[in-house]
Structures are given as C-alpha cells and as structure tokens.
Write a structure and sequence with these properties.
It is globular, with a radius of gyration of 19 Å. The protein is of the alpha+beta class and 308 residues long. It folds into 3 domains: 84 residues, Rossmann fold (3-Layer(aba) Sandwich); 140 residues, D-amino Acid Aminotransferase, Chain A, domain 1 (2-Layer Sandwich); 60 residues, ATP-grasp fold, A domain (Dna Ligase, domain 1), CATH 3.30.1490.20. It is 33% helix and 24% strand. It has a 5-stranded antiparallel β-sheet with strand order 10-9-8-11-12. It has a 4-stranded antiparallel β-sheet with strand order 4-7-5-6. Strands 2-1-3 form a 3-stranded parallel β-sheet, with helices on both faces. The longest helix is centred in the first third of the chain and has 17 residues. Helix 1 packs across helix 11.
Length: 308
C-alpha cells in the first residue's frame, strides 16, 4: 500500500503564490512516484487544517514559505499532531526565520557575516544608521520580501518601509557587500553545490528576479575560485548544522571579488523551506548532481521526521 502524503501549501504570508507553485510541483512529482497525495491550501483556521489532516496522513510535505509556514508556527502544530514532516523542526525553523537571532548563532559558529544593526522605523527616519551603501530588510521575511539597497543619492527611501512602523516590527540594517550572489544547497549532511545567480535586469536578486521566468540566470557550478567554492560549501554546511536544521536547506551568500580572486564570502541567511518552483535554485543544484526533481522530493519524504 502506498504512503499517504499531505502537501501543505499556500498559507497567509507574502510568499503565498510561490508556495502554491512549490506545492503543486511537489504534489505532482509525488503522485507520479506512486504516493497517495492530498493537496491542502493552509489558512489561519487551525480547526480547518486539523480536519483536512483527518485521518492522519503518513507524512506531511511542508511546501509553505514565509511567516506561519517557515517560522516554526506550523511545525509546532505538526509536532502536536505527531505526524512526520519534511524540512527543519520548530526550533531551527523559528531561529532561521528571525535574521538577527540566526546571525548571533552564526557569529558564535565563526561564520563570516556583514555588519548589522536592528533598528526601529523611527530610527531610520532620523538619518543613516551606518555608512552607505547599506541594505534594509525585515527581520522575519523570506524571498527578499521588503529588501532594499540604500545608495548615495537615494532619497525618501524610508517611505518604502512605512508599513513596518504600522506593524511595530523592527528592521535590520546591514552593510552592503559588493560582488556576486552565491547560494549553497545542503541535503541532509551533505553540501550539494554552490550556484551563482545573475539577475537579468534587476539591480539585485529581488522577489521578481527569484520567481519570474527569465528573471535570473543560474550558473552551476558557480564560476568562482576553487578555494572560494570549497569555502562556500563549508559555510553552507556549517550554517545548516549551527541551527540544527534537517532535510534540505539553502544558504545565501555574497561573494566580494572586487579585489580579485579568491574573493571574500559573507553569509546572509539560511532558508529552511527553499523554493521548489520551476525557477528555484535547489532543484537546479540537485540536477547538476544527478538528482532529479522527483528523486529530490522522494528523499525529502523519506527523511521526514518529528523532533519529539
């Protein structure tokens, strides 16, 4: 008898539409592999979710992204239900989503980081909190949602963050690291590879560059100095281990080669629920290693677990 897998997708975060695509792709792959698949569009209604998960499936594939699905919230529900689920558990998920807390753990692990500060919206409106250029980002969003690079001559940029004043959320300001976008995929206890992302039109690898068809070019393996490539894999694996992640993760780095090769690597963040869309990075890295999309999804299901 084939295993019953419930695929959670959608949610209520800013990444809802991407999650729906990830969930659809993963559900289709699982069906082709012979699993019995239930597709569940998750809302804030917990009773509705529990009802949809009755009778309990054998495994839950968590294809949610962003707040609610990637920050330990849904993981806590699944732990209570006692159903094995894919990706990281409650603690690792919640820490990874909170950028300042994750950075404090990365710093303790000796990983290379950009200088950063946590500030209020009010503090931002009073003037620059560090020399330009710098990056402003919400402390608990993914997929580059709300991220902005502030450069010389960039005026009235604080208006873009007015909503965070209404939400009462703090913001993180980081020194800007010039160079290239590198991402490292980790599968279990193995760093699969490092890929370079080159946005085709955007000045940075923003939300549209991530998910719009043709928004970026993926260079696999990343064409950087061999020593830097090996270091990138090491950083990705150490970040995964430092937070106690499991399953598949993706670490985003900047590679400053402006002074020549080998350049300087800086860890930005780790993603515990990396995208699984047709334009996503982890499937590209896995494919280079001879792992098809279906095989990657099967591995995630076979390695599903509960923390308790």
């Amino acid at each position: 008898m084939s295993q019953r897998v419930a695929v959670l997708m959608g949610g209520w975060s800013a990444e809802r539409e991407v999650s729906l695509v990830s969930g659809r792709e993963c559900a289709n792959a699982l069906e082709h592999l012979g699993y019995q698949v239930a597709r569940i569009d998750v809302t804030r209604d917990l009773t509705e979710l529990v009802t949809a998960l009755t009778p309990k499936p054998d495994i839950i594939f968590n294809a949610l992204h962003g707040r609610g699905g990637e920050d330990g919230t849904i993981q806590g529900v699944l732990e209570t239900l006692g159903v094995p689920y894919t990706h990281s558990g409650v603690v690792a998920s919640s820490i990874a989503m909170h950028k300042p807390l994750a950075k404090s753990i990365f710093a303790a692990a000796g990983l290379p980081l950009a200088e950063s500060k946590v500030v209020s919206y009010a503090a931002l409106t009073q003037g620059d909190v560090m020399p330009r250029p710098f990056v402003v980002k919400p402390i608990n969003e993914g997929s580059s949602v709300g991220v902005r690079v502030v450069r010389d001559g960039d005026n009235d940029w604080t208006d873009a963050f007015a909503q965070w004043n209404d939400d009462g959320d703090a913001l993180m300001v980081e020194s800007y690291v010039p160079g290239r976008e590198i991402t490292v995929a980790v599968m279990g206890d193995r760093a699969l590879g490092a890929l370079e992302i080159r946005p085709t039109s955007a000045a940075m690898y923003d939300y549209d560059a991530k998910y719009a068809p043709g928004g970026s070019d993926h260079l696999m393996p990343a064409p950087i100095h061999p020593d830097a490539y090996a270091a990138a894999l090491d950083i990705g694996l150490k970040a995964h281990r430092a937070l106690g992640c499991r399953g598949v993760t993706r670490s985003d780095l900047r590679y400053d080669d402006t002074a020549g090769e080998p350049g300087r690597l800086v860890l930005l963040e780790i993603n515990t629920q990396p995208g699984m869309t047709p334009t996503s990075l982890v499937p590209d890295i896995a494919k280079y290693n001879g792992i098809s999309f279906a095989e990657l999804v099967r591995w995630m299901v076979e390695n599903a677990a509960c923390d308790s």
